[in-house]
Amino acid sequence: MSDPADAPANADSPDVVVRSDTARDSSREASVWRNRSYVRLWMGETFSQVGEQLGTLAIPVLAVLVLDATAQEVGLLNAAETLAFLLIGLPVGAWVDRMRKRRVMMTADAVRAVVLASIPLLWAFGVLQIWYLFVVGAVVGGATVFFDVTYQSYVPRLVRPEQVASANSGLEASAQVARVGGPAASGGLLAIMPAPLVVLATSIGYLFSFAFVASIRDDEPRHERSQHASLPREIGEGLRFVFGTPLLRRITLMTGSFNLFGGLVLTLLPLLVLRELGLSPAVYGVVTAMGAVGGILGALCTPWLSRVIGEGTVIVVAALVSSVPPFVIPLAALFPSAAIPLLVGADFLFSFGVLVYNIAQVSFRQRICPRPLLGRMNASIRFVVWGVMPISGVLAGALGGWLGVTTTMWIGAVLSLLGCGIVLFSPLTGMRKLPDGPAEPVRPSAIAD
């Protein structure tokens, strides 16, 4: 709901990376599931996603129903959770390119597990307040910045280039399964136990993720300090690659636009569902789970859709599909008797469109980016597309308190749709084959007649 830049002077040569599992599989069928390191990463992410989905529903329920948060406080909570992408999003990419990626992910998992476990502890002593959720959101968000930038940079190290799309599809499919089962399970748990205890499940999920990531065996070399250029120069290399590659620049600006304006809708969704519509957390969980089935379908269909309508066109179509649900969600307030089917339909379509869009564009950018630049490239994109989220959160809270929840949602829906023009009126429309490298020109034959 991701032109050639100068080669980094401090870059590791891709040739020094030894992919032991992948090398052993080279003589066998090119299946990413034969790669044991990838499977361990997939298992860790699956457990992490299950725990995260339990907590994703529990935390807004905790804020709205237990701590009686206002629209402004809900907006600030959303802003705190994504603030790190704006504050440290750019240097994280350079830092990650200097670090061993598996260790970065393990540290991020450990930090998130410990911090989230403190919520039920403070609640048990009767001292939990809304401001502490802001602190937890900011710390967890910072760890997530490190994990996400590292994670997207790590996949190409574990699998062969031709397996990147399949690897991403597998990871996104399992994430969507978690998005189906997690909210439903969370809703059921919230019906029988307090929200702070459900948050504890998120912490446990991160502990499982830590264990599986720790078990991955790779040969990523130690990065020597003498290899690295100055931090500003490294950050600049990532930004120049992203904004100097025309198609990548379009995709990044489109995603940032959608997150900024679509965030006005998604930030206020818990208030609409739990307070204005008066639905229970259990019903909210079931609605979210049923809608997330669309994401599973999207993850499974992306390779086929890319072949049928083209690798560039599928990005445009998925962006347009994703812009429809923000118009459907506020209709639930106008037609409360049909609120549940409207919300399920909107969530289903949104999950489908976003997953197709993300798999297609992330696979494209992983494919064209030089491996030593992956961390900075991902960080530069995350800085733009997630850095707007705290702005969106504060704006949603302010407008929601001033104009009302549904009016703010309508504004977000219209602006989200207009943002699709960034990719709609671009060479991506009608493009059958995306470039395989940053310097590869767009050939006339790559455009559909």
Would you give an account of this structure?
75% of the residues lie in helices and 0% in strands. The chain has helices at 20-25, 36-66, 71-87, 89-98, 101-124, 130-158, 164-192, 195-214, 231-244, 246-276, 281-309, 313-322, 325-328, 331-334, 339-368, 374-385, 388-403, 405-419, 421-424. It has a single domain (21-217, 230-446), classed as MFS general substrate transporter like domains (Growth Hormone, Chain: A, Up-down Bundle).
Largest sheet: none
Order of helices and strands: HHHHHHHHHHHHHHHHHHH
Discrete helix count: 19
Task: Describe the global form.
Answer: globular
End-to-end distance: 30 Å
Specify Rg, calculated over alpha carbons.
21 Å
Tell me the name of the CATH homologous superfamily: MFS general substrate transporter like domains
Overall average residue pLDDT: 83
Low-confidence parts:
1-29, 439-449
- Kindly provide the name of the CATH class: Mainly Alpha
Under the CATH scheme, the architecture is: Up-down Bundle
* CATH topology description: Growth Hormone, Chain: A
